[in-house]
Amino acid sequence: MSGAVHIEAISPAVMLLEIDNPPMNPLGVGMRATFMAALDEVETNEALRCMIVTGRGRAFCAGDDLKDDSPAGEDLAGFGRLLTRLDETRVPVVAAVNGWAIGGGFELALCCDIRLASTEATFVCAGVNVGLMASTYRLPRLIGVSRAKAMLLTGLPHDAESAERFGLITSLHAPQDLRPAAIALAERIASRAPLSVEATKRAANRAMDLAPDEADRMWAEDLGRLRKSSDHRAAVAAFRDRSLPVFTRS
Question: Residue 75's pLDDT is what?
Answer without folding.
Answer: 64
